Amino acid sequence: QVQLVESGGGLVQAGGSLRLSCAASGNIFSINVMGWYRQAPGKQRELVADITSGGITNYADSVKGRFTISRDNAKNMVYLQMNSLKPEDTAVYYCNVRWHPSRNYWGQGTQVTVSS
């Protein structure tokens, strides 16, 4: 059983910053990809950023230069530093960990709201 618990969401004005954290626990394979996805009302869930256990990162074009993903392998934590937030960043943000097509886990989500 794998559990992911997100924290750090909230309401912020445009141009502000937030830092999301995700704690993973359970039977997690050491070689994995951890990431953040988001889903806005009426839209499909989309990748925001992910990072391999070796530190290779990948970002959606819409967040490049504004968001930074990082992880602490010893603690099974992943973080998302979000700067220069825009109203279009408003969404529920979900933490994800995966290492096999049948081993793909999600957190419960945390709301991020950016006011204009």
Describe the fold and architecture.
With 116 residues, this protein is mainly β. Helix content is 0%, strand content 59%. It has no helices and eleven strands. It has strands spanning 2-7, 10-13, 18-26, 33-39, 46-52, 57-59, 67-72, 77-82, 91-100, 103-106, 110-115. The strands form two sheets. Strands 2, 4, 5, 6, 9, 10 and 11 form a seven-stranded mixed sheet that branches. The protein has a four-stranded antiparallel sheet with strand order 1-3-8-7, with no helix packed on it. The mean pLDDT is 97.
Task: Give a quick precis of the structure.
This protein has strands at 2-7, 10-13, 18-26, 33-39, 46-52, 57-59, 67-72, 77-82, 91-100, 103-106, 110-115. The chain is mainly beta.
Number of strands: 11
| Helical content band | under 10%
- How far apart the termini lie comes to 40 Å
What's the overall geometry?
Answer: globular
- Total of DSSP H or I helical runs spanning 4+ residues: 0
Beta-strand proportion: over 45%
